[in-house]
């Protein structure tokens, strides 16, 4: 009996690992497909706005089926509504917009790697709030992430920027607001559910930025590839990826889930090279590796 239980647990962990990695991989492919859509002439702001609203609707439909009686519960508490609006504006609206702009000004791999630095901003805020010095693992993480960012930005030449400054600026803003996403929604998710919180956040965030993105000006000259690309970034690249990653993380645990999330930029870099023919400087690859190593150390250290 004990042996059967052990085999069952091992099977669940293996399945959870595959599901979590698939979710992270779909996020990486989402960035690559988005870059393709932009290269085909679709406006960056229009793409991100349309994706936010549509993926938000998909998640809300899922929430309505899962919990029809509690679908509007989040709107019955004034403090929850205020928190939701802040999350929608910054953790979703600003984060998604700047992430896509970073992709547009660089590529999917670099933008994904820069956004992965979000836990470092959370770490810095925690250190300041707790009035303490960094711990050993944190002292390893910070230099690795700074060094990795330096390599991506300069290719090792301190006198010149090798990446568009706007790509770095938008990437860092995206990481900062992604840090808000890692902190702010947790209370609402525990109280109202993941699909409800994220679905409303994406939908409202999309509605907030719609006036600036001219969503009503639907792009012309669509073909099969563009339509398929838009469907991908809404369903597999957003709603399905999110559901798979969260479900997989619930099986393998948050620590392993955090490490597996680093698969996203790996997929983004690989797919950018294979599908879009983009090349990466050796310094960029080393920089991405340094950032991912630093975040992996930080994530694992939280379990100790």
Walk me through the structure.
The structure is a single chain. The protein has 304 residues and is mainly alpha-helical. The chain has one domain (13-301). The chain has 13 helices and no strands. The two termini are 31 Å apart.
Distance, first to last CA: 31 Å
Helical content, roughly? over 70%
Strand-residue proportion: under 5%
Number of domains: 1
Rg calc: 19 Å
Mean pLDDT across all amino acids? 89
Shape: globular
In N-to-C order, the SSE pattern is HHHHHHHHHHHHH
Structural class: mainly alpha
Total DSSP E strands: 0
Task: Characterize the biggest β-sheet.
Answer: none
Instruction: Note the total helix count.
Output: 13
Low-confidence blocks of residues: none
Which descriptors apply to this entry?
single chain, mainly alpha
What's this model, at a glance?
This protein has 304 residues and is mostly helical. The protein has helices at 2-39, 44-66, 78-105, 108-115, 118-130, 136-154, 165-183, 186-192, 194-213, 224-252, 254-260, 263-275, 282-301.
